[in-house]
Prior knowledge:
The protein is α+β, with helices and mostly antiparallel strands. It is built from 10 helices and 8 strands. The strands form 3 sheets. The protein has a 4-stranded mixed β-sheet with strand order 3-4-8-7, covered by helices on one side. A two-stranded antiparallel ribbon has the order 1-2. Helix 2 packs antiparallel against helix 4 (70-91). The longest helix is centred in the middle third of the chain and has 27 residues, at 157-183. It is elongated and about 75 Å long. Residues 1-6, 49-70 and 110-121 have low confidence and may be disordered.
Amino acid sequence: xxxxxxxxxxxxxxxxxxxxxxxxxxxxxxxxxxxxxxxxxxxxxxxxxxxxxxxxxxxxxxxxxxxxxxxxxxxxxxxxxxxxxxxxxxxxxxxxxxxxxxxxxxxxxxxxxxxxxxxxxxxxxxxxxxxxxxxxxxxxxxxxxxxxxxxxxxxxxxxxxxxxxxxxxxxxxxxxxxxxxxxxxxxxxxxxxxxxxxxxxxxxxxxxxxxxxxxxxxxxxxxxxxxxxxxxxxxxxxxxxxxxxxxxxxxxxxxxxxxxxxxxxxxxxxxxxxxxxxxxxxxxxxxxxxxxx
Length: 293
């Protein structure tokens, strides 16, 4: 989230704090100060806690404090919001404890509710999604084939359409490989339907370690293309484990290499998702960095 969005969010939380203060018998000004300042402080602490760092062009180390110590991170954000809310309320002539209460509410409910683990509505085996995933790939392939047939060989878009077809053909084979290992009992992959917001952007899917490195859960937003994207990551974990950090119980599966996301986003693009590029060649390291990966 950019600084302008931080400020706008703080003003909204300030107005809410002022109204709640008046309802509780206090004055609008101190409530506004408590809500706005605690929002800014909580946003700042969240931003600091989510900082990762790059090793070089191809490798990303995302080793933020929030990722490694989520429980403690939440406690720090909420506490800092409560304390700053109380102090700012006192400075504005209000009650410290009421200000602290408003700050805790702002930091806890409005900030940290948007950060953290998924809450899945349902869990089932990835095997149950086989027909739906393969149908999505087949339907999109038919669209691309018809489009290619209508284009001339001189049309520059033909090359991109053909590349997309190749990506989808490969995706089909990889998905069937993943499902084959699950069917044999070598891996367990559950699926949960959910959404969340992290660092100001919607997260459409996530892959999480379970009880062992052979136990995984995909959380996704209900869009079949998002599920296919995450299934490509499952294939990468199964067949290219060197591109991922070591197993850690109930933690997100984190890649140490941009190639894994480029690979998955090429599949998403080929499925027709609007990911912000004009051609498959536009899915680069720079594209991933720009979008927070």
